[in-house]
Design goal:
This is Phosphoribosyl-AMP cyclohydrolase. This protein is of the alpha+beta class and about 140 residues long. The chain is built from 3 helices and 8 strands. Helices cover about 20% and strands about 30% of the residues. The strands form 3 sheets. A 4-stranded mixed sheet has the order 2-1-6-5, with helices on one face. The radius of gyration is 16 Å and the shape is globular.
Amino acid sequence: MNPASLPIPDPVLRSAILRSVRFNGLGIVPAIAQQHDTGEVLMMAWMNAAALEETLETARACYFSRSRNRLWRKGESSGQVQHVLDLRLDCDGDTVLLLVDQHGVACHTGRRSCFFLAPRDGVLTEIAAPEASPESLYGA
């Protein structure tokens, strides 16, 4: 079976996908971004229905920021954009997997992946160095 091609212009299909997602009591669902060609897990964020629908319509990752209580488009301030090539739901419909083409780093710390801490030799260790400084990404 061939993967879906995003964006999805068909509103009926977008609506069917949205109905298949089990958003939690806060109206959000975890979304995992994975690099499409390497399988590297890049990050986890949250999506509400509006973020998911925008992602389906534009093929650019859009998430819901719980701290800012608004949508945020990956890369809107850093330029580190995620183009979504395919989308999958888990068996319960309560987690979204985005297969993306990540341009630049995915983590706000300047690392390729947000998953850079791992137990090594009895301590939690950084296993990936930053590729860019947060200051260069966000100007702060």
